[in-house]
Amino acid sequence: MVDATEVYFLGLRWTHFFAGIMWIGLLYYFNFVQVPTFKELDGPTKNILIPKLVKRVLLWFRWSAVVTVLAGWVYFFSRLVVDSAAGPVDLSRTWWYVSILTGGLIGTFMLLNVWGVIWRNQKRVIHATEELARGTPAPPEMGKWGKQALVASRMNLALSLPLLVFMGAASHLTVALGG
Amino acid sequence: MPWAVETKMGFAWGIVITILFLLSIWAMVVLGNIAPIALPIVAYFAFLGWINRVK
Q1: What domain range includes position A56?
Q2: Which residues contact A95 (CB under 8 A, 6 or more apart)?
Q3: Is B41 close to A148, i.e. CB distance below 8 A?
Q4: Any B CB within 8 A of A155 CB
Q5: How many A×B Cβ pairs under 8 Å?
Q6: What is the Cα Rg of chain B in Å?
Q7: Residue A178's pLDDT band (boundaries 50, 70, 90)?
Q8: DSSP letter (8 states) at residue A90
Q9: How far are the Cα atoms of A102, A154, A158, B6 from residue A161, in angstroms, in the given order?
Q10: What is the C-alpha to C-alpha distance for residues A112 and A42, in angstroms, rounded to an integer?
Q11: Least crowded by CB within 10 Å, which of A31, A84, A98, A131?
């Protein structure tokens, strides 16, 4: 027989992995493919691609980020509830919790960057580009919006490396913390 | 090709926050308390305050 709790945790893990692959995959697409390619394109070509391609990529990017982080935190607290039922859990002395908490917080910072910095600025860029096609001149702040979004995207690229280390190390690195 | 200033700034913040996470893990284990996790959290909110000033 299959244990219902294990199926529940497997479902959460699958959701977390599926959405996480999509999110981080699109993050790498932005950083390694789109940004360098756009630097080589002329203005009119970019003005076509921003409302079509970029808008669509950002839709999947920002919502896969939400699903990834949400599934991750639900998994964390569910595991805490199950483990606590067997006895008190010392979060700071159990490697799985230390590692997953670190990875989870890094992921949460990245989610906040996606919605609070990247999307907040990119939606202004998309809107301005759409208005440009209707004849409204581009606002002077457009450069600033792009710059802030790029800083946060580069930061997420850097943070994705320790994120994956701690997520993997929770279950695949044996660390005795004592206590 | 030299790295753009946005790349340098983004990587710098990412590296600082990663170092603070490593420090907080060490402090958590030494103190036996999860309170040091506040260290990178505060740094991240400092980033959110700073990023709006980038022009």
Answers
A1: 4-172
A2: A170, A173, A174, A175, A176, A177
A3: no
A4: yes
A5: 86
A6: 14
A7: low
A8: -
A9: 12, 12, 6, 18
A10: 31
A11: A84
Closest CA to A152 of B21, B50, B30, B38: B50
Give the separation between CA A76 and CA A159, rounded to whole angstroms.
20
Q: Which two tokens stand for residue A98?
A: 């230390």
Q: How many helices (H) and strands (E) does chain A have?
A: 7, 0
- Is A178 a domain residue? no
| pLDDT at residue B28, as a whole number | 93
**Domain range list for chain B:** 5-51
Question: What is residue B25's predicted lDDT score, i.e. its pLDDT?
Answer: 95
| Per-residue pLDDT reduced to its tens digit, A10-59 | 999 999 999 999 999 999 999 999 999 999 999 999 999 999 999 999 99
Taken as a whole, chain A contains a residue count of: 179
8 Å CB contact between A52 and A79: no
A109 touches chain B (CB under 8 A): yes
Total length of chain B: 55
pTM here is 0.96
User: How high does pLDDT run on average in chain A?
Assistant: 96
For residue range A12-22, list pLDDT tens digits in order: 999 999 999 99
Nearest CA in chain B to A150: B6
Residue A179 lies in a domain: no
On whether the CB atoms of residues A64 and A17 are closer than 8 A, the answer is no
User: For chain A, how many structural domains are there in total?
Assistant: 1
- The tens digit of pLDDT for each residue in B17-50 reads 999 999 999 999 999 999 999 999 999 999 999 9
**Residue A22: partners with Cβ closer than 8 Å, 6 or more residues away:** A60, A64
